[in-house]
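Technical annex B. To support the medicinal chemistry partners, we prepared a structural model of the target in complex with nicotinamide-adenine-dinucleotide, based solely on the information shown next.
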Amino acid sequence: MKNYQQLYIDGRWVNSAGNGHLDVVNPANGEICARVPSANLQDVELAVGAAKKAFAAWSENPSSTRAAIINEIADGMQSRKDDLTQAIVASMGCPISVAADLQVQGAIDALRSFAPMAAEMDKQQEHTNHIVVSEAVGVCVLINPWNYPLSQLVGKLGPALAAGCSIVVKPAEQTPLQDLILAEIIDGTSLPAGVFNLLTGVGSEIGESLCSHALVDMVSFTGSTLAGIKVAQAAAPTVKRVCQELGGKSPYIITPDADLDAAVRYGVEDVMLNSGQTCCALTRMLVPAEKLAEVESIAKTVAAEWQIGDPMLAETNLGPLSSQLQQQRVLSYINTGIAEGAKLLCGGTQVPEEFSKGAYVAPTIFSNVSNDMTIAQEEIFGPVLCIIPYQDIAHAIELANDTPFGLSSAVYAENRAEAIKVASKLRAGQCYLQGAYFNTDSPFGGYKQSGNGREWGLEGLKEYTETKALLIDADAS
Ligand code: NAD
């Protein structure tokens, strides 16, 4: 068992001012795999103070220096790719092949993509009577969940460093290990002390203090809508910028003339990936009522290819959920779906005896779901798909938008042009057309209760910038 004793503050490993700790539990077997410090309010003061002290000099560095350091960190991550992968498999149960490619290599590549963006900060817009420049926001608190812990960190860290911000990071309680490894990597780079600070700890204990701190300029939060609201409330009295990436219940419209085999396969695979713990998962599949039987048959066949297994084995594509708590939450939703009268096509609440020690849930599909059922309205965050029949496209669009969320959506039509017509009617921050996949160049973020602000790409960088107007007196030299 790995025992991390210290927090990373002001360029040094330091003991927490308190003596609390957190156990990291491997959800595949329920065993404790690591122990980390649980930061307290004094640690928050030290970390925020260090970030404040480091901010001015860091933001005044040439953009080329910031870009070079981002690449230096990415190089360090590449050389510790195996450690980062193992940390994610052990703490959240993601199958090793998915963890290595999607969660770790994807994050390293994404971090590199922010290096050239540092130069965006040098651009100025010249007008006859004013010049518009961009400056770094300041001290940023970055709070993340456990489902894609490294990618989510990189999606905040990359643009924050590129813009010239200094940072205090707080990972989820369940998944602090990749952040601790990243701190070890950063300790070996030329990033100035205090620009990156890491507090492992409990959100309900130190979150409010981080989000309300007078020296913090911005909070970027990814997590549940409930905690996102608390973050915004804590940040409001000091008028901080708050970027919220929250939950989803994303619709996926398959039109009557779509290639049904390809479309249904895409939808089932999308939901099963990462055991359904993906905020933008397309968990409501809207299908023409007359094709429901055909859709059910394809969906069942594809789901059978996703069988639970040991996440350490290369052939496993469906690992456990991230914790027993999450497993119980998902099982309770499955029971609710059954009780509300949805048709259980496959999966359910049972798993083979050999997996009973882990937080496993079988790939589960409900059909003939009505959009007002709990399982169609609330985010389940597990390998559970709802198939919802519709009468015509207008009805499909109405059902798609009948949700408090607006994070993602998708359309599979006969062709791209037809898909774009439907996409233009969907109230969500992203729409995946004809089987497209997530990429880190496209802006990502929610409408409605799925959040505020955007991550990734240039839009993601802009979140970490302030706009300043330099007004010119035409007669002055
Ligand atoms: P969570 O909200 O419980 O926790 C997320 C983070 O917030 C953790 O680090 C936690 O410690 C911290 N936190 C909790 N209470 C806090 C408070 N009062 N103040 C400050 N920080 C606090 O969410 P979770 O269960 O870890 O993650 C699952 C949720 O995250 C799902 O709802 C999912 O949709 C969402 N999510 C959204 C996105 C996105 O980009 N939109 C991405 C991934 C996950």
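Notes passed to the chemistry partners:
The domain at 251-439 is CATH 3.40.309.10 (Aldehyde Dehydrogenase; Chain A, domain 2).
The first strand starts at residue 2 and ends at 3.
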